[in-house]
């Protein structure tokens, strides 16, 4: 590192040539010496300083390789405090350091011992202490670290210390720290506080939510370390449930299928080089990414979102359609699978349609097969650009989907018949529920009318001046009542009531012999005349 006031860019090139020639001479001398070592790598940093208020005559230049041994870079900076800040930045770049600013540190005022104010202290440490921030994408960058500084710092908030024990926290790393402003009073107070055996917890500043303690400051053997605390789930805990992930409360993931998917796409050592069709060398990593892309062009993650991947009959097609090149045997197996699905549809076999979140019986059988065919077409179309044989599989699928007109007519008639049966079944249920009550009311009205007629006849008969009773229509007995057609299924209330009345009436009188010997309630008269005449 050379700090100098340079006159022009040509002055910079002259210094670079001088350093390069010196290194060359030294290496030539060290090659013939037993106690000298050659210079294998040298980084030349030229810092051009110029007075405040003037313009720089030398332009900045990033790192440039002058030879296999020498690299050079140029920085222009104003003299004074700007030079110290620039050196601070260069030190961080060279030693892979990062900056952390601790905010809201309570310190007592020198003038007023009973009051305290909050101060900020900037610390330098290895950048590995921020690796968790970089992984999560949350850098907590609070802007420039100090006035006039061109580097960024991570801001952490002071927590009131409650413990002196370091072993109570699960640490993933510890890195030495150094205050940027060593001689300032806040840095001195913080250093003395930690060297007395105290520990300070640091939390990530958040606008909302619970606070996250990510780091801790503590001293060991007279040196201060920044400890990185594990803010994520510990490896000692049980693994999280799959429902705690991005999907929320989704529980029907295709976990078994995903395990099989991982087994089919494992990475293996690539021993022999392979070449593409155009003659270029095939890169193993690119080939693995290409295969992974083919296998995931259509791969539903949830069981309820797919039909074909829940059917064993589709496995032969789904396993070979993702190949980059198919054989004639593979095409034949895919065609057989499609024909088997057509046969299943003709037999009206049920499909594993998920009914999660739906009410009732779910979609009809024709709708289930329409969903299945659409999903199968989506899977095949995702791979038709792989080869011509993939196109043949799609052509077979489309030919089987386009049914002849008589097949479509038969399907329509079947759908109409199913709708008619559903409607009649619904109406029948409504009628059966109303019919027993209607029949029981009618029967009750007949019995009440019969009782009134009997009472009226008794009154007329007992009175002394009563005329002859008027001719009335014969009463309808229970046996002559039209029999109610028995309904299928459980016995109705009317049937139970009719059976009870018939049984009670049969015990009160002796049945007419003609009715006993009748056929279909029809008795033949004058049978003896036919017997006497020899008929």
UniProtKB/TrEMBL annotation:
Task: Write out the annotated subcellular location.
Answer: Cytoplasm; Nucleus
- An example Gene Ontology CC term for this record: integrator complex
Pfam families hit by this protein: Mat89Bb (PF10221)
Please name the GO terms of the biological process aspect recorded for this protein, alphabetically. Answer: cell division; centrosome localization; regulation of mitotic cell cycle
Keyword line: Cell cycle, Cell division, Cytoplasm, Mitosis, Nucleus
Which parts of the sequence are annotated with region: Disordered?
A: 404-449, 456-475
What the record says about family reads: Belongs to the Integrator subunit 13 family.
Q: What is this protein called?
A: INT13 protein
Q: Which organism is it from?
A: Atlantisia rogersi (Inaccessible Island rail)
Organism taxonomic ancestry: Eukaryota, Metazoa, Chordata, Craniata, Vertebrata
């Amino acid at each position: 590192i050379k700090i100098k006031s340079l006159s022009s860019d040509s002055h910079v090139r002259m210094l670079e040539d001088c350093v390069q020639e010196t290194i060359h001479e030294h290496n030539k001398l060290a090659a013939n010496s037993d106690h000298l070592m050659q210079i294998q790598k040298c980084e030349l940093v030229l810092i051009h300083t110029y007075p405040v208020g003037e313009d720089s005559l030398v332009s900045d230049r990033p790192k440039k390789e002058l030879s296999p041994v020498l690299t050079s870079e140029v920085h222009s900076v104003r003299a004074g405090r700007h030079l110290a800040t620039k050196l601070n930045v260069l030190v961080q770049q060279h030693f892979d350091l990062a900056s952390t600013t601790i905010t809201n540190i309570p310190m007592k005022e020198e003038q007023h011992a009973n009051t305290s104010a909050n101060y900020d202290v900037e610390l330098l440490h290895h950048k590995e202490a921020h690796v968790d921030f970089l992984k999560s994408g949350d850098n907590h960058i609070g802007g420039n670290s100090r006035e006039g500084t061109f580097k960024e710092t991570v801001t952490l908030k002071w927590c009131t210390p409650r413990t002196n024990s370091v072993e109570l926290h699960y640490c993933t790393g510890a890195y030495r720290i150094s205050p940027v402003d060593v001689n300032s009073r806040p840095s001195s107070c913080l250093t003395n506080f930690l060297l007395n055996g105290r520990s300070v917890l640091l939390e990530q500043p958040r606008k909302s939510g619970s606070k996250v303690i990510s780091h801790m400051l503590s001293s060991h053997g007279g040196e201060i370390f920044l400890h990185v605390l594990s803010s994520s789930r510990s490896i000692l805990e049980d693994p999280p449930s799959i429902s705690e992930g991005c999907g929320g409360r989704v529980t029907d993931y295709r976990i078994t299928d995903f395990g099989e998917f991982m087994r089919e796409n494992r990475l293996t050592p690539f021993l022999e080089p392979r070449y593409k069709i155009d003659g270029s060398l095939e890169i193993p990593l690119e080939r693995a990414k290409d295969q992974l892309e083919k296998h995931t062009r259509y791969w539903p993650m949830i069981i309820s979102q797919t039909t074909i991947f829940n059917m064993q009959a589709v496995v032969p097609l789904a396993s070979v359609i993702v190949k980059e090149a198919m054989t004639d045997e593979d095409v034949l197996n895919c065609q057989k699978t499609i024909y088997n699905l057509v046969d299943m549809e003709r037999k009206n076999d049920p499909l594993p349609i998920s009914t999660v979140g739906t009410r009732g019986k779910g979609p009809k059988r024709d709708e289930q097969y329409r969903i299945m065919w659409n999903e199968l077409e989506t899977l095949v179309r995702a791979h038709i650009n792989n080869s011509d044989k993939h196109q043949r599989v799609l052509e077979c699928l489309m030919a089987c989907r386009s049914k002849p007109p008589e097949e479509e007519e038969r399907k329509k008639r079947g759908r109409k018949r199913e709708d008619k049966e559903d409607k009649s079944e619904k109406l029948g249920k409504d009628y059966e529920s109303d019919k027993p009550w209607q029949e029981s009311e009618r029967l009750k009205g007949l019995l009440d009318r019969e009782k009134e007629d009997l009472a009226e006849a008794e009154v007329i008969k007992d009175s002394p001046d009563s005329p002859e009773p008027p001719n009335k229509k014969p009463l309808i007995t229970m046996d002559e009542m039209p029999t109610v057609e028995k309904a299928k299924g459980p016995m109705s209330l009317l049937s139970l009531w009719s059976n009870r009345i018939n049984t009670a009436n049969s015990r009160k009188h002796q049945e007419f012999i003609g009715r006993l010997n009748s056929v279909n309630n029809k008795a033949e008269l004058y049978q003896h005349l036919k017997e006497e005449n020899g008929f």
